[in-house]
Amino acid sequence: xxxxxxxxxxxxxxxxxxxxxxxxxxxxxxxxxxxxxxxxxxxxxxxxxxxxxxxxxxxxxxxxxxxxxxxxxxxxxxxxxxxxxxxxxxxxxxxxxxxxxxxxxxxxxxxxxxxxxxxxxxxxxxxxxxxxxxxxxxxxxxxxxxxxxxxxxxxxxxxxxxxxxxxxxxxxxxxxxxxxxxxxxxxxxxxxxxxxxxxxxxxxxxxxxxxxxxxxxxxxxxxxxxxxxxxxxxxxxxxxxxxxxxxxxxxxxxxxxxxxxxxxxxxxxxxxxxxxxxxxxxxxxxxxxxxxxxxxxxxxxxxxxxxxxxxxxxxxxxxxxxxxxxxxxxxxxxxxxxxxxxxxxxxxxxxxxxxxxxxxxxxxxxxxxxxxxxxxxxxxxxxxxxxxxxxxxxxxxxxxxxxxxxxxxxxxxxxxxxxxxxxxxxxxxxxx
Length: 432
Ligand code: DSN
Known about the structure:
The protein is α/β, with parallel strands linked by helices. It folds into two domains: 47-282, Type I PLP-dependent aspartate aminotransferase-like (Major domain) (Aspartate Aminotransferase, domain 2), CATH 3.40.640; 285-422, Alpha-Beta Complex (Aspartate Aminotransferase, domain 1). The chain is built from 16 helices and 15 strands. It has helices at 8-13, 15-30, 43-49, 73-88, 100-111, 141-144, 161-171, 189-199, 211-215, 252-263, 269-282, 285-307, 333-342, 370-374, 379-394, 399-415, and strands spanning 32-33, 60-61, 64-65, 92-94, 120-124, 146-150, 175-178, 202-206, 228-232, 243-247, 311-312, 321-325, 345-346, 348-350, 364-368. α9 (211-215) links the parallel β8 (202-206) and β9 (228-232). α3 packs antiparallel against α11. It binds D-serine.
């Protein structure tokens, strides 16, 4: 068995686990990863994340810690903070959130004072592309804060800023949340800023999905308009699994206090080190090219689906993400996503706006290009991938057809190794 990252120490202690990791490694290598929130961290990011930094406690912030021994931890966190501020042009950065959901909770806590009577947040509804932490009823964000939602236009499925303004005037929220987990178009942060200002609300932008595009200049930045910006670090930004909060200087103290001691204990220093590496990588011309190519690929993928007869929500894409209605190809979203997985095309079922079907088996499939672009694929490949998707969803009951596509996907993936797999291709037979 060859493995680009042989977990030799794990194998010596826990061969069962090592075998599973090796299989997952092969799965990731030979699958076309189309989940738009996933990517590949570089070897440098992986290496920094897997260091002795995991052994150190450091509650507090650089130069203000509750434990001794911070001689090297402080400058590591300061590197990450400085790089985040420079990359996004933000006054302040907090690099400690464990991931996107805790970052969002901390952001609300920072933006809405404990004694404030107005605890209303106004965000995009989950079924139209928002996130659970944007006040969905099953999320604690709706227990601690009073959640209200806006939607997209019923016909175009685009954000309708006049309607959002009307909704904001009606709700009078303390915080307007912009940003999405399933919106294929560009977001007008300046317009959101104007609406927030008009109604006297704070603006929070959750750019978890598009942070890498913002960093690479492929999507407008919310930083000039938002009081607080939250993001994960492992999606288009291509860092380790973690969270990041950017803010104005005015919000800096509230944000820091909300993260620690408000929400979290000791920061994960190994992850912060991995983030420092990722932020340095994201500041390079190569990353700018990556961000632009991700969008070009997404447009090409949307076009390929349209050519294959799929109904593409909003008719295309301006970012890294494409949402299509699998029922237009004769399957439910879940059936479509399962068929695609059998064909080596990894995606997730997702609601389409105003979906008549249940969230457990919705109408749509959400796909995206961040990971394939990291592997060096371009527009011509997207045309092929789009055809494979249509063929797989339509041919979901045809095992031979799904196998035929899967072998072609594996051949393509073998020709374009993923970042982090520079050591060589995993053994393909591990997947048999
Ligand atoms: N899991 C993320 C996504 O897939 O969009 C959201 O948290």
